[in-house]
Design goal:
The protein has 453 residues and is of the alpha/beta class. 38% of the residues lie in helices and 18% in strands.
C-alpha cells in the first residue's frame, strides 16, 4: 500500500484518493483519470494547446492538477474561462475538490474563498478563477500556472494570455473546441502543426471517449465512414453514435466533435472557400516537366505584407511552388521573382498592378519577366475569387499543403459592409497574399486576364 506522502506526490493517485467529481450522470465519484487525461499528462510540455471534442474532461484534469499543487506547495494559479457560466462551474469544481480533500481527518487550510479568489496560507498559495472578458484580467501578479478554458471563444485572447504570462514563466494550458479558422487559438494551433513556435498542439477527437457509442442494428458504412473506421480503428457502435450526433447537430458536428485538425476549424467558421480539407493535396517536391504548361500569379508586398508568387502546373491542375517573402529590398524581391520565373520556364505571370505593383512590373519587364498587369477592384476581385472557388471545388485544382496557404485560405472571408458592398479579404488584420496570388494564377490559366487589364 502506498503511503500518504507517496499518494500526494503521484498525480493520478492523488486524484483518485483525495478528489471527487460529478460524473456525466451527476453522481459524486472518485476522480479517476480517463484515457485522454492520462495521455495528456504524459505528454504535456508546459506550453500546451489542447484541441478537443466536447466533454473529454480536460478542464477537470487541469483543475485537479492545479489544486493538487496548490495544497501541497507554494503556487499562484489563474484560471480564465470564456463566459460567466463556465467560470461558475470551474469555481464549484474547485470547491468540491476542497470539500472532499482530507488527509485523514485533516483538511488543507483555506483562508479566503470568494467568487474569484481562494487562498491556502499553509503554503502561501492563491488560486484565481475569473472570466476572460477583459484584456486586463490576469495582469499585476506573477503566476506559476495558467489554465485557459475554451480559448477559441475569447475576445482578444492574445493580449489576455500575454498579460497573464508577463510576470513570470508559468505552466500554461490552453484548451478549446474549435471556433472558426481565425484568432489566437487557431493561429497557435496551426503554428504548432507546422513545427513552429513554442506551443505543443494536442489533438483529441471524439473517439477518445469510449462512451461515445450507440447500440442498434447492423449498418452499412458509407465510403467516408469506412475510411474513418479503417484509419482510426472505429467500430459500428461508434459510427451509429456519430450518425446520431450529425443528425442532431448538423453543420455544428465538426466543431463540437472534431475529427481532424484542419477541417474542424474550416467547417466551424465562415471561410469564403468553405471546406478545403480535400484541396491541399498537391505533392511537395514537384519538378519542371517538359511539355507541361505552367502559370503563376504575383501579389506584391515588401514589409508588413508579403510578396506571394504561386506557380501552377496547368496540365495537371496542381500547384507546384510558392515564393513567399518580405522584409527585403525591392531589387532583391524582383531577383527572387526572376529566379522562380526561370525555374519553371514561365512565359508570363499575372501580376497585381495596384499600388506598388506597376513600377515593379516595369522593372521586371527589363529583366525579361513577362508580367501581365491586373487591376484589382471589387468587380475583378469577386470574379477571380469566384473562379478559384469553382476551380478548387468543382474543377479538381489542388494546392500545396503549406501552412501559410492553409491559414490564409481558411481565414479569407466575405463581409457585407453597411453600404451593401461585399468585402472579400482576410479576417481582421490577417494576410491574404497567397490567396490573391493563387487566384491570379488560376484566373490566367482557366479564363485569361484580358477582361480586367
Amino acid at each position: 500500500m502506498p503511503t500518504p506522502n507517496q499518494i500526494i506526490k503521484n498525480p493520478s493517485d492523488f486524484a483518485r484518493v483525495f478528489l471527487r467529481i460529478l460524473d456525466k450522470e451527476k453522481k459524486l465519484v472518485p476522480f479517476r483519470w480517463n484515457k485522454a487525461q492520462a495521455h495528456f499528462h504524459a505528454n504535456r510540455t508546459g506550453r500546451d494547446i489542447i484541441l478537443k471534442a466536447r466533454q473529454l474532461g480536460f478542464s477537470t484534469y487541469v483543475q485537479g492538477e492545479m489544486f493538487r499543487r496548490t495544497v501541497t506547495g507554494t503556487q499562484t494559479t489563474i484560471t480564465l474561462a470564456h463566459d460567466a457560466e463556465t467560470t461558475q462551474k470551474l469555481r464549484r469544481m474547485a470547491d468540491r475538490f476542497y470539500e472532499h480533500c482530507k488527509f485523514g481527518d485533516i483538511q488543507p487550510l483555506r483562508k479566503y474563498a470568494n467568487a474569484t479568489l481562494a487562498t491556502y496560507p499553509e503554503f502561501d498559495s492563491t488560486s484565481t478563477i475569473a472570466t476572460a472578458g477583459n484584456v486586463e484580467t490576469g495582469r499585476g501578479d506573477t503566476y506559476t500556472e495558467m489554465h485557459g478554458s475554451e480559448v477559441a471563444f475569447w475576445k482578444d485572447a492574445e493580449r489576455i494570455v500575454a498579460g497573464a504570462m508577463q510576470g513570470g514563466n508559468p505552466v500554461v494550458t490552453l484548451e478549446s473546441t474549435p471556433n472558426g479558422a481565425q484568432g489566437f487559438f487557431y493561429e497557435k494551433a496551426m503554428e504548432s502543426l507546422s513545427g513552429g513556435g513554442v506551443w505543443k498542439l494536442h489533438f483529441y477527437p471524439w473517439w477518445w471517449d469510449e462512451a461515445y457509442r450507440s447500440a442498434g442494428e447492423p449498418i452499412t458504412p458509407t465510403e467516408e465512414e469506412a475510411d474513418l473506421m479503417q484509419k482510426h480503428g472505429l467500430d459500428e457502435s461508434q459510427i451509429r453514435w456519430r450518425r446520431g450526433k450529425i443528425a442532431e447537430l448538423g453543420r455544428l458536428f465538426p466543431q463540437e466533435y472534431p475529427e481532424d485538425v484542419v477541417s474542424c476549424f474550416l467547417t466551424s467558421g465562415n471561410s469564403y472557400f468553405g471546406d478545403l480539407s480535400q484541396v491541399f493535396t498537391a505533392p511537395l517536391g514537384a519538378e519542371w516537366i517538359e511539355g507541361h504548361q505552367y502559370t503563376a500569379g504575383l501579389d506584391f508586398g515588401q514589409m508588413k505584407d508579403f510578396t506571394a508568387m504561386p506557380v501552377w502546373d496547368k496540365t495537371t491542375k496542381q500547384q507546384v511552388d510558392l515564393l513567399h517573402i518580405n522584409g527585403m529590398e525591392w531589387s532583391e524581391i524582383r531577383n527572387r521573382i526572376k529566379q522562380m520565373y526561370d525555374k519553371w520556364h514561365l512565359r508570363s505571370v499575372l501580376a497585381e498592378r495596384n499600388s506598388i505593383g506597376q513600377p515593379n512590373i516595369e522593372e521586371l519587364h527589363k529583366m525579361g519577366v513577362m508580367a501581365t498587369p491586373f487591376d484589382t477592384n471589387n468587380e475583378s476581385k469577386s470574379a477571380i475569387m469566384s473562379n478559384m472557388n469553382e476551380a478548387i471545388h468543382a474543377g479538381g485544382w489542388k494546392m500545396l499543403p503549406l501552412p501559410v496557404q492553409k491559414h490564409e485560405m481558411n481565414t479569407f472571408v466575405a463581409t457585407q459592409l453597411p453600404s451593401g458592398v461585399w468585402r472579400l479579404a482576410a479576417d481582421g488584420d490577417g494576410h491574404d497574399d497567397t490567396v490573391i496570388g493563387n487566384a491570379l494564377a488560376i484566373w490566367e490559366a482557366s479564363r485569361g486576364a484580358q477582361i480586367f487589364i
